[in-house]
Amino acid sequence: MTEAHTQIPVAPLGEALAPAGGETAVLTHFVDGAGWKGTGTETQLVFNPATGQPIAQTLRGTAADVDEAVAAAKAAFPGWRQRTPKDRADVLLEAAAVLEANAEELAHLESVNAGKPMPLAREDVDGTIDTLRFMAGAVRAPLSLSAGEYVADRTSMIVREPVGVVAAITPWNYPLLTAAWKIGPILAAGNTCVLKPSEQTPLTALRMAELLAGVLPAGVLNVVTGAGSVVGEALATHPDVALVSVTGSVRSGQAVAGAAAATLKRVHLELGGKAPVMVFADADLDAVAEGIRFAGFGNSGQDCGAGCRILVEESVRDELLERLVPTVESLVVGDPADGDHIEMGPLVSKAHRDSVVGFIDRALAEGARAATGGKAPEGDGYFVLPTVLVDLPDGAEATREEIFGPVVTVETFTDEDGAVEAANGTPYGLSASVWTENARRAADLPGRLDFGTVWVNDHLTFATEMPWGGFKSSGYGRDLSAYALDDYSRTKHIMVNRARGADGTEQS
Ligand code: NAD
Prior knowledge:
Layout: H1 13-16, E1 26-27, E2 29-31, E3 34-36, E4 43-48, E5 53-59, H2 63-81, H3 85-101, H4 103-114, H5 118-138, E6 148-151, E7 154-162, E8 165-169, H6 175-188, E9 192-196, H7 203-211, E10 221-223, H8 228-237, E11 243-247, H9 250-261, E12 266-270, E13 275-279, H10 285-297, E14 307-313, H11 317-329, H12 350-365, E15 369-372, E16 387-390, H13 397-400, E17 407-413, H14 416-424, E18 428-429, E19 431-435, H15 439-448, E20 453-456, E21 471-472, H16 481-487, E22 489-497
Parallel strand pairs: 1-5, 8-9, 8-11, 9-10, 11-12, 13-14, 13-19, 14-17, 16-17, 19-20
Antiparallel strand pairs: 2-3, 4-5, 6-7, 7-22, 15-16, 18-21
């Protein structure tokens, strides 16, 4: 590392959350085990979306900052990879314990920065901790083909190796959780990491790195803040980065895959979604309404798996709406700081709020009707009312594009084949749900749906043991489960020729 590593302490983030109008602290990158002021001069404000007030500043990282962070990760790689799985697992378990001891602070930071209701923010922290614990266990129990004699006199075995320095680029909707879904398997598999959090929600990633400084060896986890077009691009093109993993929009995924092509580095993409919720006439409609309340409006609908495109059998459409509209209207919307009773917070930024309102306005102009909601409320913060759009013309933009807000659309179908065709008729392939009490249909439809996750009578329930990831424009690569460990490692075949005589000469 160079002299540029003047270490300035990361301000305690409690202090960084400056009072309205107060001076905001500048948070540094985190490189080689400590806060680092970087090589650039520009900073960027970080906001509380519930109030619109700035709460901190971060550094706008440069390509030179990325060079420094990658060098630190590269230097740490040999030591980290040579540890046994048990040793790495012990470190990850300790890391999980440290995060657990600081869970309420992390949840609070996430809530203030991402506008998440506290109960949801706590769930994200729980999921973060569980991911580290699962990966610590999974790396000690690898699954692979058996070693054996597949060619006469030769013993074959497969070794799973880390790939090297992995870049992790994360979005703003689940800042800590998406980081953990990457860091957990990346580090467990023996890689080292440079993490670039979303420029809008960097606080929990920085705090996590700071908290884990006493647990992880220096350089194993580095965080560089800044713009995707600068820091993200520099990571995607860096010759010493072996794999770049992105959770974000389709456009960012395409940009990263394109940039990564020059060095032929591996790419892991978790991109957007437009999840259909297929409701058959035999479904339990009360359960459907509750399911959509949770899956369509949780995290203000800013969820790649959000159940946002309702396809309902025409004969029960009105019955479903009679249940759904009051259920959605019962959501308690407000500033998460008001208390744990808040169920839905703001959208992440003014620009994103305006984008969601734009989708609603265009749908209404196309002839759709808002059965409830349909606008942004008056007042501070970037809120949009929970919205149910009905009577949409065929192929309406709102039914095709990822809105990423508290907006669900309702379309109808008349038969099963039509429902499957409509559900699959989207470039996205991340997740879908089928709601039915018919056993044959429940067993048959998931196989006909082109989505990486299909729920039956449920939506947006995750298991750390099970993979998460998409098909088609939703990307490739899997988070969670042992498959994520596979994604962040490489297989090597070692074949040993045993056909040697006692004097060492070859026999065949
Ligand atoms: P985004 O694509 O704008 O940003 C994601 C990250 O990519 C950010 O850190 C950003 O700085 C970076 N980035 C942007 N352009 C880049 C470039 N050219 N090179 C390198 N990095 C670049 O996404 P967002 O708005 O933060 O998040 C919302 C999107 O993420 C939605 O589309 C959502 O569906 C998707 N998402 C997917 C999953 C999943 O598991 N599939 C989970 C969460 C979010």
